[in-house]
Design a protein that fits this description.
182 residues; Aminopeptidase; 6 helices
């Protein structure tokens, strides 16, 4: 995987998406497996990580070049030491660099076949830990809906607190507890 930006959590390797990754997903998705050197389920992409999200990320990469890498999508890969393989379990990331007040919004999605194993919480905790190492980041937020109890559980398990109504109708905003202490 060359010089890709990576983060390591106990069970996951998070790989920052590049414009090449996103173009591949949009145009020849069957080749993403080769780029990531991992098994990619035929059910990919999943959840909120859809064509619209990919097009948004690609536009940001085209505007910002390499400096945009790491500020958008990250692929979550898990290794299976028993058969020396790796699989794409989900994606997460940020909606871009911090706003003027230091706020970063996070999002995440895990393939159904890998849900209920703690991967989403582990991915969120890894991404939050990483972004709080950057001095310009003061606050991390996330949005979900009451109709998504699994997402609420992920956020609560990842030290987020309910912060009331979200920016979109029907959403709830969560703020990472480190943001509140800062």
């Amino acid at each position: 995987m060359g010089n890709l930006k990576r983060l390591q959590t106990p069970r996951l390797t998070l790989v920052a998406a590049t414009a090449t990754h996103i173009r591949t997903e949009l145009n020849t998705p069957e080749k993403l497996s080769t780029l990531l050197d991992a098994y990619v389920s035929p059910a990919w992409p999943t959840g909120e990580y859809d064509r619209h999200a990919m097009e948004f990320f690609l536009a940001r990469f085209e505007e910002g070049g390499e400096t945009a890498e790491g500020w958008y999508s990250w692929y979550a890969l898990c290794s299976d030491a028993s058969n020396n393989s790796c699989a794409l379990v989900g994606a997460g990331g940020y909606f871009g660099p911090p706003t003027a007040d230091g706020t970063v919004e996070i999002g995440y999605s895990v393939l159904p076949e890998f849900q209920r194993r703690g991967y989403a919480s582990e991915m969120v905790r890894g991404l939050v830990h990483h972004v709080f190492t950057l001095p310009e980041v003061k606050r991390v937020i996330a949005h979900t809906t009451m109709e998504n109890p699994a997402s609420i559980k992920v956020l609560l398990n990842s030290e987020f607190c309910d912060a009331g109504p979200g920016t979109e109708p029907g959403t709830i905003q969560f703020v990472h507890s480190h943001s509140i202490k800062a």
